[in-house]
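Why run this: before we spend reagent on co-expression, it is cheaper to look at a predicted model of the complex and decide which construct boundaries make sense. The entries below are exactly what would go into the expression plan.
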Amino acid sequence: MLDRIIEILPELNVAFYETLIMVGIGLLVALIIGLPVGILLFVTERGLFWQNRVAKTILGVIVNLIRSIPFIILLVFLLPFTDFLVGTTTGAIAASVSLSVAAIPFYARIVESAAREIDKGVIEAAIAVGASPWLIIKDIILPETKPGLISGLTITAISLIGYSAMAGTIGGGGIGDLAIRYGYYRYDDTVMFTTVIVLIVLVQFIQYLGDFIAKTVNKR
Amino acid sequence: MIVIKELSKIYKAKTGHVIGVDKVNLEVHKGEIYGIVGYSGAGKSSLIRCMNILERPTSGKVIVDGVDLLRLSPKGLRKARQSMGMIFQGFYLASAKTVFDNVAFALKAAGIPTEKRKKRVLELLKLVGLADKAEQYPAQLSGGQKQRVSIARALANNPKVLLCDEATSALDPSTTKSILALLKKINHELGITIVLITHEMEVVKEICDRCAVMQDGKIIEQGATYEIFSNPKEDLTKQFIDTVLNFDLPKQLLEQCKGMILQLQFRGDLASDPIVSDMLQAHKVSANILHGKVEYIKEKPLGIFIMELLGDLDEMERARRYVEERLQQVEVIQHAR
Ligand SMILES: Nc1ncnc2c1ncn2[C@@H]1O[C@H](COP(=O)(O)OP(=O)(O)O)[C@@H](O)[C@H]1O
Ligand SMILES: [Mg+2]
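The model came back. Tokens follow.
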């Protein structure tokens, strides 16, 4: 059994690396697009400084739409878009496209609900000293939600690991892909177990790291 | 300093319209401490929040230092708010920021460059007595200390006005006293006009030059605090005054008394006049002091005495009229039997 593991190690290495790429890109896009979308969902809410029902409704519907599509279907649905964007539909980079699309609304909702935890009075006090909306977002809302933003990233990362395994089924690469190819198609239990253990360790590690950082930045 | 004209605030709720403020007219003079008192739901918060347009009035005018706030652009309004500090019952400090950064935020909002912020923040923390807490987080402070930080933040940009929304209502009595003393000092030394709302008449008694009583969105009575205390007109005002001045005599005592029980109120300028002894000398009555105390309203004494008069019925009546002519407030608590 050990021999088999050593034999598979180079491939496992590549798969692990691919998983990291997929999850990493997904997280990055979640941060770059999902975070602003989440903040926008929050500040367009009733009673807040950019209160805007139309914007909030449109944004909310789009977010819900994407979130309600099962990932495996989103994956297939986005194949033409992926092809257009990166010129291929297989491999880790291609899989990252649909992972990113899924990660944006997922993280946006987490950001929105984290921001809702802020006492409205704190935002009001900032308005009362004459701060601009932009300064309030940058200096009050973001720092105040930091612990929530970080644990939200943790949750998103772990979900993306799960999604990336699905992406593997249609040739996306990564640990999931490896598990399917050997474990499912060739009944190779050793590879199957090894990949499962690697995934468990990865998830545990991310959870631990996320919790640790969230706790360190929490001043409440 | 602040002129409120025909101001109304109507909230749209699912169950219809809720009136927060109902056609209020009000003027707060430069350099004074103005109190607005009323029960919960009277519209005090709505009114004070309209003063810096945290709440946009449905109709009416808000003029602060000659500027009509409702005609300002968003940017102009932000600028105007920098000259009006505000503090709240819930303090509302940013929990992720240190004490220093919470105060510095107000300066940042006003576009003060980083180098200049430090000196000003330390100055402010010294003013509120928290110079040693600069690097702490709000979670590490007591309620009174948090309110001091929020006062420092409100004063950061040298405002002309400080608005206080139930600033002491979440604090214990001794902390309340120390915060009130700080507000008094700010008013006195920096000349900042203060508007404060509260449901505690004790607070008004302690620091307000003038005050108003609010009920159902309307101001039902207003005037100099001493006048309001010594000569309230409305029932609600009397109720509020009673929370500070009232002393209920034990029922048993009232039952035992055979004579006429009078409550006399002495205003500061009269307190030393020997009205009672003159009355006793001029009439064939004797007197029992049942209760007495002197309250200081904004440092002016207001004395209240309850006494039982004994003697001939007509003579007692003449004695009562004698004091009534000389004192503004004489009340018969119980007639002679
Ligand atoms: N944002 C709001 N939406 C709807 N009704 C409100 C709102 N704020 C206050 N009110 C209503 O306005 C009235 C006055 O409230 P408020 O100004 O908070 O009174 P106070 O500060 O004297 O307790 C109350 O009936 C309250 O329910
Ligand atoms: Mg209130």
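Chain A has one domain: 2-217. Chain A has nine helices and no strands. Bring this page to Monday's planning discussion.
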